[in-house]
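sry for the spam today, last one i promise. struct tokens for design, 313 residues
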């Protein structure tokens, strides 16, 4: 439930999701009640209190929580799929130890609620790739996916064992105009808009028919805020909920962009991210998510493209 008394800490607030999430939570709670923490200052969030924090420093984290009387933590600091494959041991360390540090704060009753995002990367090449259900084969083939799958199991375990109120969504690739993506395989679907407007051409690092689930950032932020404010008994899944978003290929998004920029051209030069994309589902089933806490997305491909081009222009 929404409680104006809550004090919120966003860790990794300077990233693609963090900037937009901090802005939306500030509208609900007041900017002074939303504390932005990251490795470096965040110019886009200059109205929020800022704390320089390495989430791996458990003592520093506890000090910040005590200093501000934090009640809820949104943990966004992580390495994503592409950067994670390039630095696998550090990706494992950051993605797991950061999560433990935050879950332990809740276990020790310093905070009352945790949000931690998972990803479509929890699925792998043996997962049924079309309309992927909530419960299915999960054999991720990236370190990022392995860390997200393990994180889901740990979240559920902390919930059952210690009553930690942790909530999570398996985001698809996220597309927004207010912030830049931070090293994922789905980043092409943001870069393409910037290049279309600037140069009217884009070289994509995935092949033309690589379908992936994606979502407008506005929908993702709303889903995050809705699950965090849903009555506890409605949040029946404490690992992570599927989110479907919209599934499309680079060719399909390029075709949609051409409706607005007729001379836009796209070429394809797949790199190591192709193998990551090939291991992920093409489309996701979110029936359980709708059923449990009433999720409904807003954006279709055409409205997403129109929104991105209008705002970036
Ligand atoms: P991002 O890379 O854009 O931002 C991460 C932020 O964390 C950065 O500002 C970075 O400086 C900060 N950070 C890194 N190490 C830190 C540390 N040790 N201590 C404190 N801060 C640190 O990532 P994002 O896209 O905003 O993703 C946030 C979360 O959402 C991640 O867990 C990611 O796996 C998940 N997610 C993102 C997407 C997506 O498409 N963006 C999709 C699925 C899941
Ligand atoms: N957008 C993310 C990535 O590509 C998916 O979790 O890594």
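last one done:
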């Amino acid at each position: 439930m929404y409680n104006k008394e809550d004090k919120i800490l966003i860790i990794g607030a300077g990233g693609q999701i963090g900037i937009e999430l901090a802005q939306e939570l500030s509208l609900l709670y007041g900017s002074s009640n939303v504390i932005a923490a990251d490795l470096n200052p965040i110019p886009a969030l200059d109205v929020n209190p800022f704390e320089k924090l390495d989430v791996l420093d458990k003592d520093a984290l506890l000090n910040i929580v005590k200093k501000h009387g934090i009640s809820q933590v949104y943990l966004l600091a992580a390495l994503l799929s592409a950067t994670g494959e390039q630095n696998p041991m550090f990706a494992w360390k950051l993605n797991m130890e950061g999560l433990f540090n935050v879950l332990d704060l809740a276990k020790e009753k310093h905070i009352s609620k945790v949000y931690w995002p998972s990803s479509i990367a929890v699925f792998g090449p043996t997962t049924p790739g079309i309309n992927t259900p909530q419960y299915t084969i999960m054999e991720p083939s990236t370190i990022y996916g392995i860390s997200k799958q393990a994180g889901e199991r740990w979240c559920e375990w902390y919930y059952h064992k210690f009553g930690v109120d942790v909530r999570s969504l398996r985001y698809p690739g996220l597309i927004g105009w207010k912030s830049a993506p931070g090293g994922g395989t789905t980043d092409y679907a943001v870069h393409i808009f910037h290049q279309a407007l600037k140069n009217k051409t884009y070289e994509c690092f995935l092949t033309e028919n690589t379908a992936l689930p994606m979502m407008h950032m506005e929908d993702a932020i709303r889903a995050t805020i809705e699950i965090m404010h849903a009555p506890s008994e409605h949040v029946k899944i404490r690992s992570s909920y599927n989110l479907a978003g919209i599934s499309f290929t680079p060719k399909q998004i390029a075709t949609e962009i051409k409706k607005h920029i007729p001379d836009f051209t796209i070429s394809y030069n797949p790199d190591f991210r192709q193998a990551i994309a090939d291991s992920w589902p093409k489309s996701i089933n979110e029936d359980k998510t709708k059923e449990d806490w009433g999720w409904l997305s807003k954006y279709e491909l055409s409205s997403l493209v129109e929104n991105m081009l209008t705002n970036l222009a």
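Residues 174-214+245-283+299-312 form a domain with the UDP-galactose 4-epimerase; domain 1 fold (CATH 3.90.25). ok im logging off now
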